[in-house]
Amino acid sequence: MNAFRLPVGPPSAERADAARNREHLLKVAREMISESGVRRLTMDALAERAQLGKGTVFRRFGSRAGIFAALLDDADRTFQQQVLYGPPPLGPGADVTARLVAYGRARIEFLLEHHAIERAALDRNQQVTIAAGGMSTTHIRMLLGQARREGLLHTADIDSLAMQLAAALEGPFVMYLAPEENATAGPARRAVALADSWESLVEQVLKVQ
Amino acid sequence: MNAFRLPVGPPSAERADAARNREHLLKVAREMISESGVRRLTMDALAERAQLGKGTVFRRFGSRAGIFAALLDDADRTFQQQVLYGPPPLGPGADVTARLVAYGRARIEFLLEHHAIERAALDRNQQVTIAAGGMSTTHIRMLLGQARREGLLHTADIDSLAMQLAAALEGPFVMYLAPEENATAGPARRAVALADSWESLVEQVLKVQ
């Protein structure tokens, strides 16, 4: 596929190759995970299945944990796009209570689906970086600000409340659930229960009539 | 102090010695932390200050992280005693809303005070064991059950709600606050704000008139 290159010079061509390899590797990695979970996904197995050299896999991801970190980064970006620009109620356009409920439900589904990958993305010497980035805190804070402007909330300190609600949402996956409760396969009952519980928590905080 | 031992045989005497050494070492460790924080507390420094051999410190705690784990275990036990048997509203005897508020306030203070020790108690290859044990989930679940019996709460699934409220309480310290916001010295403003926010969250959940 490298014939007929346009004369853009070696750096760009190299970059395009790298990006293509990365996409291809991530796609193959996703296939392997959906077939047999995260355990079987090693650098060697990925290189073989993707029909690329081990050196290429190493250059792209650095380590086995790096593969999972890249997968997670990719998934996180997609999730953010849906929240910021996707259809309502997750995206803009629905009323604030519906958006807060939808965000929680979508986030719980995301956390459930990606928990095994998040674990695998952790290097030995990293601590508590799961669910980092604080997207939940930022987004919830924005919606609480809107709710306050609309008279649905009379809390002065929405920073603290946003932090606590974000923790209520993500914390059970990070802090309390046993690994087997974080199963990736199928719609786990616990996640459904947590999503329903999130909905009533939101309704109580926002004084829905 | 080893003169006049009663004839209880070597194991018990040895155990009494070990317990006395452990108490003494923990007391000295607490002094060192309150004087100059967790950084200066090493196995060597502790042995020297406690006027005990390095071998004794090693036998008691196994590693530097082991010292902090023992300190935390000790503090956790004291905290639990206050919750289970101490005076109200933290201990039994106050109404359920007051107890839930008091638990949150006391727990936030505890987490703030012990955060540096919790970090230091983590070994490299441990993940997310901070705030483990689930005492908050268990205690909050018990109080929510009482609130439901008293008609203050109409949630069917108090397991999920307990998990989310426990995460709301402990999560900000574990997941979101930057290390400098977790300062051990002085009453941190963030913790005061979180405690106030916890109080109104509890009042909203329990439909306080």
UniProtKB/TrEMBL annotation, chains A, B:
Q: Which Gene3D superfamilies match?
A: Tetracycline Repressor, domain 2 (1.10.357.10)
The alphabetized UniProt keywords are: DNA-binding
Does the record bear Oxidoreductase in its keywords?
no
Quote one Gene Ontology molecular function term: transcription cis-regulatory region binding
InterPro entries, A to Z: Homeodomain-like_sf, HTH-type_TetR-like_transc_reg, HTH_TetR
Q: Which residues form the HTH tetR-type domain?
A: 19-79
What single Pfam family name could you report for this chain, choosing any that match? TetR_N
- SUPFAM superfamilies per the record? Homeodomain-like (SSF46689)
Transmembrane parts of this sequence: none
DNA-binding region range list: 42-61
User: Know the name of this protein?
Assistant: TetR/AcrR family transcriptional regulator
Q: What organism does the UniProt record list as the source?
A: Actinacidiphila cocklensis
